[in-house]
Structure formats: C-alpha cells, structure tokens
Amino acid sequence: MKHRIMVLGAGYAGAYAAGLLARRLHRDEVEITVVNAEPDFVERMRMHQLAAGQELRRHELTELFAGTGIGLLVARVEAVDAERRTVTVTGAAGTDRLEYDTLLYTLGSTAAQHDVPGVAEYAFHVAGRPSALRLRQHLDDLDGNGTVLVVGGNLTAIEAAPELAESRPGLRVTLATTGELGGWLGPSARSHLFRAFDRFGITVHEHTTVERVEQSYAVAADGTVLPADATVWAAGFAVHPVAAASGLTVEENGRIRVDRMMRSVSHPDVYAAGDSAFAIRDNGRPLPMSCASAGFTAMQAVAAIVGDLTGREAPETSLSYVGNHISLGRKDGIFQLVDAAERSKTWALRGRPAARVKAAILNAGPWSMRHPTYGRPTRKHHLADVPRQRNEEVAA
Ligand SMILES: Cc1cc2nc3c(=O)[nH]c(=O)nc-3n(C[C@H](O)[C@H](O)[C@H](O)COP(=O)(O)OP(=O)(O)OC[C@H]3O[C@@H](n4cnc5c(N)ncnc54)[C@H](O)[C@@H]3O)c2cc1C
User: Fold this and answer.
1) Which of 291, 337, 362, 368 has most ligand 1 atoms within 8 Å of CB, for mutation?
2) Which residue CA neighbors atom 50 of ligand 1 most closely?
3) The ligand 1 atom nearest the CA atom of 324
4) Which family does it belong to (predicted)?
5) Edge-first strand listing for the sheet containing 225-227
6) Confidence bin at 391 (pLDDT 50/70/90)
7) How many Å lie between the centroid of ligand 1 and the Cα of residue 338?
C-alpha cells in the first residue's frame, strides 16, 4: 500500500510543497493528494488587482501538476480529525471523509474581522478570490463613482487603496487606520508613500479606529462618520477555524504550533506551512504571514516530510524575513529592506524600479509552482520502513 500524503490548500505554500514532494519521493511508494477549494492556483498577492477590475492570468492546478502524479481534489475542507487521521471534504460529489498517513496543512488565512459590528454584513475584503470578485462586482455596479473606504494601515490596505484609485479614477478613495499609515517604514519609503497617496488623491485618516460598519458609511471611535459606498476591510489576516477544531495544538490566534521543522508539536504526522503555521525563527520571533514565509515554511516542511519518511536527516532551511515589497498601483512601488534587528533601513528602493522588482516577485510565484526545484536537478528517495511501521503501530 502506498503512503498517503494529503496536502490541504494549494496556495503559495501548498501548491509549491506538493510539487516539491512529487519530485523528491517515488510515485510508486507515495500517493500525493491536494485538496483545494478552487481548481486554480490563485495568486492571492494580486487580489487587490482583481478587485480593481484587472484581468489576471489563470493557473489551472491540473496544468501546474501535469506529469507529477499529484492527485487534485477540488473540494472544501470542512474538518480535520488529527486523532483519527481523517479529513472531511465537501465537493461536487458531496461530503466525504478521507484518510491520510501524513498531512500537510496549508489552508492559508482570510481577512480578520476583529468582531467589529457590521464588518461581516457590509464590508468587502480582498483576502481571497471570491471576496475580491464580490468587491469588483459592487464597484462595477457603482459605475465608476462613489466613495471607497479602505480600513487598515498595513500592507494590504496600503496596496489596495492606490490600486483602486489608479484603476477606477472616478472613485473617491479614503483610508482609515488605527495607528499610522505604514508607520514601520523607513523615512524615505514613508514620504514616498504619502506622496503617492497624494498623487492618487487618497484621503488618509490616521489614529482613527473604525468601530462600526453600515451599508453606506462607517463610524469611528470618536463618532466621526466616514462615508463609504464600499468599505474594504483590510485590517489583518486570521486563519480558518478548521485547525483549532482539529485537535492539533494551536496558538490563541488559531495558527498551528509547529517545531523548527514545521511538524505539529502535538501530532508529528501533521505538518503545517504558510499563514496557518505559527513558526518561530531562529531569532525567537514568529514569521509574519507572507508569501516569502509561505515559501520558506513549505520548503522546510517538505524537507522534514522527506526526511521522516525516508529515514534521512532533514536539513534546516532558512526562515528569514528581509523586508517588504509594496505595490502602489502598477507603475510605482516601494521595496523596503530591514536590518538584522528587523528595523526598516533608512533607504528604500522607490518608484518604477521598485514596481519592476515587485512585478518580478509576483511572476516568480506561479513560475516556482511549475519549477519547484528552481531548475536544480533533484534525486528521488525511497521510503524507509520506519514511518510505515510507526503508522501501523499507531493505527493498531
Ligand atoms: C491583496 C493581498 C496582497 C498581498 N501582498 C503580499 C505581498 O506583497 N507580499 C507578501 O509576502 N505577501 C502578500 N500577501 C500575503 C500572502 O498572499 C499570503 O501570506 C500567502 O498567500 C500565504 O500563503 P498560503 O499558502 O499560506 O495561503 P494561500 O495562498 O491563501 O493559500 C491557501 C489555499 O487554501 C485554499 N483553502 C482555504 N480554505 C480552504 C478550505 N476550507 N478548503 C479547501 N481549500 C481551502 C485556498 O483556496 C488557497 O488556495 C498579500 C495578501 C493579499 C490578500
């Protein structure tokens, strides 16, 4: 019987990890199944572009996985039972319960609502394709006019506001944030950011906490009413509740607690990567939810899975955080690097050169799904008996 590896989620972490696993393990010894809600690899980093009305290239997972032997199941993961090693899914064929021997959990995250009244009912977000398309439709219905309020002062809000303003110049775009807009950026990046927002005509309300969202306005803590034909909630990410209900040990925020190798600390046959994993770097700080973190943690999880299944020592891969690449519409951007203490460097790459760097990074995502070894030759390894015996013992 083949060892069944199941990968939940085919985003930046899952699609990449599945492709890498298929190139490291023998097809006649392992069966790799990827479960994903959508038939495509969705470039989540472009969801503000999609909402703004731009057409994005599709990346069908069957095409990305062609020739690898990876099985794709387009279905929603409803539940994971880490004790019984089962995953409940709902797809075109109805609801099913699937068994696994090794699980890689990479379901990513969605918009954090922070229990603010009205957000669930009235606000839009760009954390996934269905929600971005919903916002796009609503903006189409506004016929190019109206006021859009973006709530948040961090990366997603910073990228969403200029994208909407550039692609839909008839809109009035405002942004409200509890703290400072891009307060962590170095001085040159921050002044560039404000110049860009001025150029786009975006009104910024700093130190403004939105406490309630209604259909056509939002209300701040000091009672200020902010008009909004569409409120775009971009105040951070939260992981899906599936992990917390699975029996796996999770952090307070629901992210799966993993060791240095991305193994669940409670269930060593479960690995997690990407936004769903609470991974600690060598400097003791958690990795931020980001595309780079998804790549690093996926690489580490694959090394650990291959090591654990083949009896080889798994190498530690780098878990670093070097900074942020930020788009300000299609022609402008900021590439802010951080120093060893993770403080923003005084200088940052800005303008068109930064936009070109960002475009290259975005294009590298789907490319790496097709070429997960980055063109380097790789050897496949045979499974050791050890993991199979361990599984049988646990199952007995
Ligand atoms: C608008 C926007 C811009 C961003 N810009 C940047 C940036 O510039 N730089 C950066 O580093 N990061 C950026 N990010 C963050 C980055 O996209 C995430 O950190 C990254 O996608 C995490 O990868 P992941 O594989 O963990 O999750 P995802 O890429 O979200 O993949 C998760 C996958 O799981 C699937 N899934 C989820 N739930 C279920 C379910 N119940 N059943 C089945 N399938 C499910 C999803 O459909 C998806 O395919 C941005 C995010 C957004 C929303």
Assistant:
1) 291
2) 45
3) 9
4) Belongs to the NADH dehydrogenase family.
5) 210-213, 217-220, 225-227
6) very low
7) 23
Single residue among 199, 233, 267 that ends a domain in this structure: 233
In this prediction, residue 341 carries a pLDDT of 86
Asked if residue 373 has pLDDT above 70, the reply is yes
**Which of 35, 78, 107 to mutate for ligand 1's pocket (most ligand atoms within 8 Å of CB)?**
107
In terms of C-beta distances under 8 Å and separation of at least 24 residues, what long-range contacts does 266-270 make, across chains too?
Answer: 266/82, 267/82, 268/308, 269/85, 269/101, 269/102, 269/103, 269/391, 269/394, 270/82, 270/102, 270/103, 270/104, 270/105
Residue 240 near ligand 1, beta carbon < 6 Å: yes
Asked whether residue 92 carries a pLDDT value surpassing 90, the answer given is yes
Q: So what's the pLDDT on residue 205?
A: 98
| Domains identified in the chain, total number | 2
- CA 316 to centroid of ligand 1, rounded, Å: 24
Q: How confident is the model at residue 375 (pLDDT cuts 50, 70, 90)?
A: confident
User: What's the CATH code of the domain at 218?
Assistant: 3.50.50.60
Which residue's CA is the nearest one to ligand 1's atom 19? Answer: 290
Q: What pLDDT, on the 0 to 100 scale, is given for residue 3?
A: 98
Average pLDDT, stretch 355-382? Answer: 94
Question: Which residues have CB under 8 Å from 19's CB, separation 6+?
Answer: 64, 65, 68, 70, 369, 370, 372
Q: Which pair of tokens denotes residue 293?
A: 């973190």
One domain for residues 16 and 100: yes
For the segment 350-374, the average pLDDT, to the nearest whole number, is 96
Distance 123 CA to ligand 1 centre (A): 19
Structure tokens at 173: 């775009």
Distance of CA 112 to the CA centre of its chain: 13
**C-alpha of residue 12 to centroid of ligand 1, in Å:** 7
Residue closest by Cα to atom 37 of ligand 1: 107
Pair (222, 299) in one structural domain: no
Q: How many CA atoms lie within 13 A of 343 on its CB side?
A: 4
Question: Given a cut of 60, is residue 390 above it in pLDDT?
Answer: no
Ligand 1 centroid–CA 310 distance in Å is: 30
Q: State the residue range of the domain holding 272.
A: 3-108+240-321+373-395
Per-residue confidence (pLDDT) for residue 49, from 0 to 100: 98
Residues 143 and 215 in one domain: yes
- The pTM score is 0.95
**Cα(306) to centroid of ligand 1, in Å?**
24
